[in-house]
Amino acid sequence: MAKAFASKNPVSQRMRSIRRVLWIVLMLNLAVAAAKYVYGVISGSASMQADGIHSVFDSAGNVVGLVGIALAVRPADEGHPYGHAKFETYASLAIGALLLLAAFEVGSSAIAKLVSGVFTVEVTPISFAVMIGTLAVNLGVTTYERRCAKRLKSEVLAADANHTLSDALVSVGVIVGLVAVSLGFPIADPIMALVVTLAILATAYDVFKHAFATLSDHARIPEDDLRATAMSIAGVRGAHRIRTRGTEGEVYADLHVLVAPDMTVVAAHELAEAVECSVQRRYPNVVEVLVHIEPDDGHEE
């Protein structure tokens, strides 16, 4: 006997919250990108221009995230009985692809400067003011977005928070490069741009790793933890064949529960509901639980 239970969690409200965060971050990223890139062009700093391009791709990633959330928020239908939540994961993959493109743009520009041997960067106090100011904004955005990602169990926000963090680390590298240039080492500017490239590639790897965990149906809840939750219900003699999958924000779980062989259908139904409620109280991100009732008569062995 099996029974599926749908969560009453406000999934659409979660998606709206994610979308609101993405809009706020988009506006901030555009402001940061404009400040760094424009002054990078004015001063001739390759690393500042590279950092500005990185911030532009942050903004593009926000747009991709907004599109993904718009698709993910749609309710389940005949063709997608489990809903559209994985579109959030596809958006994360698109952000990863944008990061790879950004790495190519930044890296090729830095290599071209190193090959030509022409270094025209001009360092002024304004250069440091721009970089330190945008660094402060990036750190604030990263902290805000990471907290929201954790609270909302959002892959897009987590990926974008890591992206913004890499932007902050890159800004630190650019500041170091500007210091080196001011001390008489102009070659440090394109070298730091290459460091930017490596940071972007590392971020892309992290984004792809988390997205593939969802698409490959990686277990979202440890089996032993879910078993312990089920076993806490009076009448449950055992639990096995435990599986979980889905996105971090929308997890689907199924398990087989062993009960007394002489338990009535009504009692078994009530026990299954109790298991479902216990699982969803412990794990609010579980949107559906499938409980299969089996008699504890040794057949499962």
TrEMBL record:
Question: InterPro entries from the entry?
Answer: Cation_efflux, Cation_efflux_CTD, Cation_efflux_CTD_sf, Cation_efflux_TM, Cation_efflux_TMD_sf, CDF_Transporter
Cellular component annotations (GO), alphabetically ordered: plasma membrane
Give the subcellular location.
Membrane
Q: Does the keyword Transport apply?
A: yes
Picking any one GO biological process from the record gives:
intracellular zinc ion homeostasis
- Where do transmembrane segments lie in this chain? 21-39, 59-77, 89-111, 123-144, 165-185, 191-208
SUPFAM superfamilies for this protein: Cation efflux protein cytoplasmic domain-like (SSF160240), Cation efflux protein transmembrane domain-like (SSF161111)
Keywords recorded for this protein, A-Z? Membrane, Transmembrane, Transmembrane helix, Transport
Cation efflux protein transmembrane domain span: 22-215
Q: Which Gene3D superfamilies match?
A: Cation efflux protein transmembrane domain (1.20.1510.10), Cation efflux protein, cytoplasmic domain (3.30.70.1350)
Keyword Transport appears in the UniProt entry: yes
What's the protein's topology in the membrane? Answer: Multi-pass membrane protein
Q: Which top-rank group of organisms is this from?
A: Bacteria
Q: Which PANTHER family match?
A: MITOCHONDRIAL METAL TRANSPORTER 1-RELATED
Similarity-based family: Belongs to the cation diffusion facilitator (CDF) transporter (TC 2.A.4) family.
What name is this protein filed under? Answer: Cation transporter
What organism, scientifically named, is this protein from?
Answer: Enteroscipio rubneri
